[in-house]
C-alpha cells in the first residue's frame, strides 16, 4: 500500500525549525543582561547635546515660563525631539503630553493704594506681598522698633515701620541672597506684628532691601501658583512693602492709608512630556526606570544689564537635553527594564508638574522601579558633582545609592560633594527639585546635580556658559545608573523606615 504523506507532515521540519528559532529568540530576549555590561555611551554625543541645548535655551523660547505659550512651545519641541529619536508616546490618549491646570492667584490689577492722599504705583512704589481682599481707610501708627509694640494696644490699627534685618541673616553666599533676606525679614517681622491684632502692615525697605525690590517685587507680582486640588490660604492681614522714599510720608508723625486690595484667580494649562523606550526583557519591560527633569524656567523678568530673558540653560535645559541623549542610547541598546522619560512642567512654580505626575502617573505606579532626577548638571568645576539622596535622612534606597556610586566610580569618576545633602545645609537643595514628590510617594529616588552658581535664576544662565563636556559626562552617569537599575534582576526597594525630616 502506497503511503500518502500529508502537507502537514512535509512542513514538520520547517515548523520545528521555526519553533526552535522562536524559542532561542525568546530565551535571548528574556535573558537578563548583567548590570556590568557596558552601556551604549557612544550614543551620547557632545555635538547633539550642544545643538539641543542651544535650541531649548535660546532667546526664541523666551524662558519657557510655566502657564504661558512659551512653556507649551518648549514642551512641543521636547516631544518632537523624542518622536524623532523613536521614543514611544507615554502620555495621555496615545500622545506625548499630560496636560493639567495651574491655578494662579494674583493681586488684582484694580488694587489702589494712597498715602496721605498721594497715589502709590503698584509694583513700582509699593508691593502687596500676597493676594488678599481688604478695604482700608485709616491713620497709620509709626513704630520706631518692635519695642514700641510693648504695652500698646494696636488691635485693628494700620502700623508702619522700617524693615528690620532678619535674625539670623541668610548664610553668606547663599543663592539669591537679597531675595532671601527680604523674605526672611518680612516673615519674621509681620508674624510678630500680626500677634498684636493689627489690621495692616506697611514695611519701608532698608538700604539692604532697596536694590532687591525689582527682583523680589516681580515674584510678588506673579502671585501664587498651585494645582486646583491644593487649598488656597489667603493671609488675613495685608503686608505691603514700600520703597525707602515712602519714609517721607511718615516723617511728620501722621499719615493715612487708603487701600482697596483685591485678588484674582486664573487657570492656565501646563504640561508634562512623557516618552518611553521599551525594555528588552518580555517580563521586566513592564517595569520602568524613570528619568526626570523639568523643561520650564522663569520666562521674561526685570532686565538685568539689559537682558530680560531668563534662559534657564543650566536650570534645566541641561537635563532636558540629557534625557534626550539617554533616550538615544536606550533605543540603540535597550536595558531589560523600560526607560520612562518625564519632562515636568511648572517645576519653578513649586514642583507642580512632578507633584501632578506622582499623583496621576500614566503608567502603573507600582511599575516605577526608581526615579533618577537631574537639575542643573552643566556648570562649576569639571570634576565636581553631587548626588542628593545619598546620605541620611534623604537616602531612601541604599541599593539605588550603591548603584549610582558604583556607576560613578566605574565610568565618570566625579569628586562628589556630600555636604549639600545634609539636612542642615542652608540651601535646603534636596527639597527643591522634582524627585521629592516621588520620594514622598514611596518610590526610590536620587537627585543628580552640579549644584548652584552665581548665574542661578538670572538672565546670565545662558547656553554659552555650559560646560558641554561636563554635561555629557553627567548624562553618562545618570544613564549608567539607570542601566544598572534596569538590568539587575532584583528591583531596588525603599529602605525600611526611610523618612524625610520634613
UniProtKB/TrEMBL annotation:
Pfam families: Peptidase_M28 (PF04389). Residues 272-479 form the Peptidase M28 domain. This is Peptidase M28-like protein. InterPro entries: M28_fam, Peptidase_M28. One of its GO terms (molecular function) is metalloexopeptidase activity. It comes from the Bacteria. SUPFAM superfamilies: Zn-dependent exopeptidases (SSF53187). GO terms for biological process: proteolysis.
Amino acid at each position: 500500500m502506497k503511503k500518502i504523506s500529508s502537507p502537514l507532515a512535509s512542513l514538520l521540519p520547517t515548523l520545528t525549525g521555526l519553533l526552535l528559532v522562536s524559542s532561542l529568540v525568546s530565551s535571548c530576549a528574556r535573558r537578563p543582561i548583567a548590570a556590568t555590561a557596558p552601556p551604549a555611551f557612544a550614543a551620547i554625543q557632545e555635538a547633539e547635546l550642544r545643538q539641543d541645548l542651544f535650541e531649548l535655551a535660546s532667546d526664541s523660547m523666551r524662558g519657557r515660563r510655566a502657564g504661558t505659550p512659551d512653556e507649551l512651545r518648549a514642551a512641543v519641541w521636547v516631544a518632537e525631539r523624542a518622536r524623532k529619536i523613536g521614543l514611544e508616546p507615554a502620555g495621555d490618549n496615545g500622545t506625548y503630553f499630560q496636560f493639567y491646570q495651574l491655578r494662579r492667584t494674583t493681586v488684582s490689577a484694580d488694587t489702589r493704594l494712597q498715602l496721605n492722599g498721594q497715589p502709590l504705583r503698584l509694583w513700582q512704589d509699593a508691593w502687596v506681598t500676597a493676594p488678599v481682599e481688604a478695604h482700608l481707610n485709616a491713620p497709620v501708627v509709626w513704630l520706631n522698633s518692635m519695642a514700641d509694640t510693648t504695652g500698646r494696644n494696636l488691635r485693628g490699627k494700620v502700623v508702619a515701620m522700617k524693615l528690620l534685618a532678619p535674625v539670623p541673616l541668610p548664610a553668606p553666599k547663599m543663592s539669591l541672597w537679597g531675595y532671601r533676606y527680604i523674605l526672611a525679614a518680612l516673615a519674621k517681622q509681620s508674624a510678630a506684628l500680626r500677634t498684636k491684632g493689627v489690621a495692616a502692615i506697611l514695611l519701608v525697605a532698608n538700604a539692604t532691601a532697596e536694590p532687591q525690590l525689582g527682583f523680589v517685587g516681580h515674584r510678588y507680582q506673579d502671585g501664587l501658583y498651585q494645582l486646583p486640588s491644593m487649598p488656597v490660604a489667603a493671609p488675613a492681614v495685608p503686608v505691603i512693602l514700600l520703597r525707602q522714599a515712602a519714609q517721607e510720608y511718615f516723617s511728620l508723625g501722621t499719615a493715612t492709608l487708603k487701600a482697596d486690595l483685591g485678588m484674582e484667580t486664573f487657570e492656565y494649562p501646563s504640561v508634562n512630556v512623557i516618552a518611553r523606550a521599551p525594555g528588552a526583557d518580555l517580563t521586566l519591560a513592564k517595569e520602568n526606570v524613570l528619568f526626570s527633569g523639568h523643561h520650564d524656567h522663569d520666562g521674561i523678568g526685570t532686565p538685568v544689564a539689559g537682558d530680560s530673558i531668563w534662559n534657564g540653560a543650566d536650570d534645566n535645559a541641561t537635563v532636558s537635553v540629557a534625557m534626550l541623549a539617554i533616550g538615544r542610547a536606550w533605543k540603540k541598546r535597550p536595558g531589560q527594564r523600560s526607560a520612562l522619560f518625564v519632562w515636568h512642567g511648572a517645576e519653578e512654580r513649586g514642583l507642580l508638574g512632578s507633584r501632578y505626575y506622582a499623583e496621576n502617573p500614566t503608567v502603573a505606579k507600582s511599575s516605577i522601579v526608581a526615579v533618577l532626577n537631574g537639575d542643573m548638571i552643566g556648570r562649576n568645576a569639571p570634576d565636581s558633582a553631587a548626588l542628593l539622596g545619598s546620605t541620611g535622612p534623604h537616602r531612601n534606597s541604599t541599593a539605588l545609592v550603591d548603584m549610582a556610586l558604583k556607576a560613578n566610580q566605574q565610568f565618570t569618576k566625579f569628586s562628589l560633594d556630600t555636604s549639600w545633602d545634609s539636612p542642615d545645609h542652608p540651601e535646603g537643595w534636596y527639597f527643591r527639585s522634582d524627585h521629592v514628590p516621588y520620594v514622598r510617594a514611596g518610590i526610590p529616588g536620587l537627585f543628580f546635580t552640579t549644584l548652584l552658581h552665581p548665574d542661578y535664576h538670572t538672565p546670565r544662565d545662558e547656553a554659552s556658559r555650559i560646560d558641554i563636556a561636563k554635561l555629557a559626562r553627567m548624562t553618562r552617569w545618570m544613564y549608567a545608573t539607570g542601566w544598572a537599575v534596569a538590568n539587575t534582576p532584583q528591583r531596588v526597594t525603599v529602605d525600611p523606615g526611610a523618612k524625610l525630616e520634613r
